[in-house]
Design a protein that fits this description.
Oligomer: single chain
Low-confidence stretches: 1-5, 7-16
Mean pLDDT: 93
Helix content: 25-40%
Distance between the termini: 50 Å
Largest sheet: 9 strands, mixed
Strand order of the largest sheet: 1-2-3-5-4-6-7-8-9
Shape: globular
Radius of gyration: 22 Å
C-alpha cells in the first residue's frame, strides 16, 4: 500500500535534504514505488538457490527471453574482404554471415609468429555518442581522421585491440548495429521527413564531404537524435536493442570458435561503456566466454532511478528488472572469471550504485564458492578505459584464458 499523506510528505522532505531533485520531480515517488514492487526475484543470493547450475538453468532462459531476439541464423560462413600486414599482426577484414537481412562486418587481428590454436577476445567498442565509427575506436588505421585519433586517445589512450593482439591473442572487433558500416545513413533520409529538431544538422551533413570533420559532427548529431526512432521501431518488431547486440556478439563467437587458429575453450570479451554492457550480457548469455572484463557499465538499477536514467536507448531490456538486476544477470557468467572496473569520477552512475553492484557480485561469487574468479576494482578517473586499466584486463585474461 502507498504511505499515508504524512509519511509521504516526510519521505519527500528527507529525499530533498539528502539528494538532488529527481529528474522526474513529482513523478519520482511513483517510479520508486513501482521499482520496489519489481525488485529482482531471480538473484542467486535468494535463499532458495544453493546450486549455481540449477540457478543458471532457471535464470539464463529468462534473460534470453527478455532480450527478445533470437532469429534463425544463416549457415555459418564468412567472406574475407581483404588481408593486410600490420606491425606485429595480420589484419583480416571479414563479413560474417548472420541473418537474411544482414552480415556482420568484422576485423580480425592475428598475432604474427604465434602458432595456434590461440586464445581469442571479442573487443567491444564504446558508444561515446559517435556513430560514424565502430571498430575504429579500438583499432587504428593509416591516414585516419584526426577526430578519430583524438577520440581514441581521450577514451582509451591507445588502440587497445592492437596492444592485446601483440600479447598473443586473436582479437575480433565488429561494428555494432548503428555504428560504423552499420550506421544510419543520414545521407539517404528524405528531406521532406527529417525532423525539424535536426534539420540544421541534416543540411550541414549534405553540404560537406562524407567523413570530413563537419560531416562527422553533423552525422553524429543526426544519429543521436534518431536513436529514439530506431529504438521504438526495434521495440515495435518485438525485439530489443540489447538483444540485437547480444545475438550479433554471440554470432561473432560462433565465427571465432569455427576458426582453426582459435582455441574455442579460451575465448574472452572486454569493453568500455556500451561495450562494457555488451561484455556483461555476452558473458551472461554465452557459456563459451570463459573470462570477461566489464569497464564503466556496472551498477544497481535502484541507484539509477533518481537522477541517472539518461543513457542511450541501447541499454534498456524491458521487463528484465523484476527477475534480474544487472549484477544478477552478469553473474550468470559464473564460473567464468569476471573483472569489473569502475571509474570513481564517472557521472553516468552514482558511486553508491557502482559500489553496490561490486559488493553484490562479490557476494554472488562467494556463495558460488568462486571468490577468486571475481574482481572489482575502482580507478580514480572519469569514464574511460586507459592503458593501466587495459593492462589489468590483459593480465586477467592471461590468468584465466
Amino acid at each position: 500500500t502507498l504511505p499515508d499523506n504524512n509519511a509521504r510528505a516526510a519521505s519527500r522532505a528527507l529525499a530533498a535534504a539528502s539528494a538532488p531533485v529527481p529528474a522526474l520531480p513529482n513523478l519520482h515517488a511513483i517510479m520508486a514505488w513501482m521499482a520496489s514492487e519489481h525488485s529482482p526475484r531471480l538473484s542467486f543470493l535468494d535463499a532458495r538457490w544453493s546450486s549455481l547450475d540449477e540457478w543458471k538453468t532457471a535464470a539464463r532462459p529468462v534473460l534470453r527471453q527478455r532480450l527478445s531476439y533470437d532469429p534463425k541464423p544463416l549457415p555459418l560462413a564468412a567472406d574475407v574482404v581483404r588481408r593486410e600486414e600490420r606491425d606485429g599482426f595480420t589484419l583480416e577484414v571479414v563479413n560474417i554471415h548472420a541473418t537474411p537481412a544482414y552480415d556482420i562486418p568484422a576485423h580480425v587481428l592475428i598475432p604474427r609468429h604465434r602458432h595456434g590454436p590461440l586464445p581469442a577476445v571479442v573487443a567491444l567498442h564504446c558508444h561515446s555518442l559517435c556513430f560514424t565509427w565502430g571498430h575504429e575506436k579500438v583499432l587504428s588505421s593509416p591516414g585516419e581522421p584526426p577526430g578519430l585519433t583524438e577520440l581514441r586517445r581521450d577514451t582509451y589512450g591507445r588502440p587497445w585491440a592492437e596492444a592485446l593482439v601483440r600479447r598473443g591473442y586473436i582479437v575480433i572487433a565488429i561494428d555494432a548495429f548503428y555504428f560504423g558500416a552499420r550506421r544510419l545513413r543520414v545521407e539517404d533520409l528524405d528531406p521532406a521527413t527529417v525532423f525539424p529538431e535536426v534539420r540544421e544538422a541534416f543540411n550541414a551533413a549534405r553540404a560537406h564531404p562524407v567523413d570530413s570533420p563537419a560531416w562527422v559532427e553533423a552525422a553524429n548529431r543526426m544519429c543521436a537524435f534518431y536513436e529514439h526512432l530506431t529504438a521504438k521501431t526495434i521495440t515495435a518488431t518485438g525485439a530489443t536493442w540489447p538483444g540485437l547486440n547480444v545475438w550479433d556478439d554471440m554470432r561473432t563467437v560462433d565465427y571465432l570458435a569455427s576458426r582453426p587458429d582459435v582455441d574455442p575453450a579460451r575465448i574472452g570479451c572486454a569493453g568500455l561503456s556500451g561495450g562494457g554492457l555488451r561484455s556483461a550480457l555476452l558473458a551472461a548469455t554465452d557459456s563459451r566466454i570463459k573470462a570477461a572484463s566489464v569497464t564503466g557499465w556496472m551498477t544497481e538499477f535502484a541507484h539509477q532511478l533518481r537522477n541517472h536514467i539518461h543513457h542511450t536507448w541501447m541499454v534498456f531490456v524491458p521487463g528484465l528488472y523484476p527477475d534480474l538486476d544487472l549484477p544478477d544477470a552478469t553473474a550468470l557468467h559464473a564460473p567464468g572469471a569476471l573483472l569489473v572496473q569502475q571509474c570513481r569520477q564517472d557521472t553516468l552512475y552514482p558511486l553508491a550504485g557502482m559500489q553496490a553492484a561490486v559488493d553484490k557480485l562479490t557476494r554472488i561469487y562467494a556463495k558460488a564458492g568462486l571468490p577468486e574468479r571475481f574482481r572489482g576494482t575502482f580507478y580514480d578517473t572519469p569514464h574511460c578505459y586507459r592503458p593501466a586499466m587495459q593492462d589489468e584486463t590483459f593480465d586477467w585474461f592471461d590468468r584465466w584464458l
